[in-house]
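ok so heres the complex, two chains, lmk if somethin looks off
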Amino acid sequence: MSDRFFGAFGLALAIFYAYAASQIQESFLSDTVGPKAFPYIVAAIFGGASAYIEQRPDHEPVWPPLGRLVEIGAAVIVLMLYAQVLPEIGFVFATAFAAAYLSWRLGSGLLSSVIAGVSISVGIYIVFHLILGLSLARGPFDF
Amino acid sequence: MDTLAQLAHGFDVAMTWQNIGLALIGCLLGTIMGALPGLGPSNGVAILIPLAFTLGLGPTPSMILLTSVYYGAMYGGRISSILLNIPGDEPAMMTCLDGYPMAQKGMAGEALSISGIASFVGAFLATWGLILLAPQLVKIALLFGPAEYFALFALAFMTLGGVSSSNQAKAAFAAALGLGLAMIGVDTQTGVPRMTFGEVHLYDGIDFLVAIVGLFALSEVFVFLEHRHGESDAAGRKVEIGRITPPWAMVKSCFPTMLRASGLGFLAGVLPGAGASLGSFISYSMEKRLVDREGTFGTGDPRGVAAPEAGNNAAAGGALVPMLALGVPGSGTTAVLLAVLLSLNITPGPLLFTQNPDVVWGLIAALFIANFMLLLLNIPMVGVFTRLLLIPPRILMPIVAMVSFVGIYGISGSSFDLMVMIGFGVVGWVLRKFDVPLVPVILGILLGNPMESNLRRAVQISNGDWWVLVGSPLAIGLWIIAILGFLAPIFFGRILRDRMKARSDEEGSLRD
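and the predicted structre for the whole thing:
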């Protein structure tokens, strides 16, 4: 069943891709093939493969229970927030939070995940910034 | 003689303190990454690429660092296979079959050292194979025109799916997805934006490093979150190593096995789409047929440890041949290494050998140096690495995620790229669930633009005649191999795959 949905989604994506390819503005100085031909070929393969998957589905994948899906969703949101606030509050704070969260969700106790988060963050800061000289995001406190 | 002179020049290039230091760091990191379940050669190399760049390393030092990691991971994978019965990375899964029984019999030290020697023999011979075979392949590749290159790229995609997926349609889906993503951005030949939907960030196209790190490294973090697999597999187990020098008779009895397995593994590595997992698998199967007269394979036979280890290390060297000589990688990690070269503005392929001999021969010399370092690291110091197995994923995975972010942010300093990377992480997780292989996606993103421009150039030269694509015997030959390579697994691949599947986990699409 999952594969049927997956195939149908792929087919829709292929049609959308072909439509987007048809919208490419052709320049008057174009080569013989032009910028559209290859995207059309790709869309055709994409659609063909999706149609086949839809028609001949494989065994059902092992889906995690809802709680685990929420877990992954929450991690994605935390990481997206991390990406956004990184330039605002600086590397060390943002990273300590994100690393502590991930460590907590993977089963560390509250205290040990805080310790893990702070040590990962400070560790990366020392190795990559102070020793190797990589530029990391700077916050209001310059680190 | 010419080859030897070039090799000597390569040693000149490689023998600087910086390069030797990088090789040593690479070997250490690689062994650690190989040993820890959850970090394999492809995602290990992936998270290090952005760092190699932002540190401003040149092409030769970067390649030395990253291929040392690659070789190191091939060595390291065996440690947890033998001690814990859990493969540290995909290619090491066959080593569990005899390695773990040996460890149970109290021969863990012998198993580790025999497999270390086998890894050395495999990698050493494969590096010689690389030296001998790559220049020959370059001679053929110099005859290639745009049409032949287009056919070669098609061949790479069509054969890649063969082993890495249980369903050819899904491999084709993955390749098309990668190619489709590669089209995003300004068209290099006419200058018109494609598939950008007016988003300025997309005009440069999708940075393949962002895609690689997302697909390989972040998706692994999500897999661990899904299973809430936070405790170390080694926790609570007593890891006894015992003596680390094998009796000479044991080494001698394994030696013919190592040689045969190296040869076979090297061939498996050179073939597009096969890679190290297949190399170790067929080496083990062949040795079982050939020498297992008493039925001791699977119960802790040292030859059963030597065969897959020699096989996968030889395959790792073999996989470098098509990557360097043709610019077409045959496995996940070599695709990642190709990404390094491309982002350093070096085009792999036949011209690499004439235009950048320093990179090629310096790299090959560094492989020899790294190989000796790995032998030294992996036999006397193996105890240090076994302690690292105690690091639980609840500490390791946050480090992987954060280092990924640091690397990508270091390149561009843009939050947008980080968001794209998270997106690729989620897509990677979903694709792995559906058993869609990830390597063709990466290959598509990497090779999409050269593939398209070769197509357009070929048709342009022949004034719009599309038949030029099958217009030469060489091109026709490549197409025939491509089609056979795509169809053969449908008929014969099932048996091989089922056997390999039996040993691997359900999210096996991250193969090398």
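quick notes: Chain B touches chain A through 68 residues (CB under 8 Å). thats all i got rn
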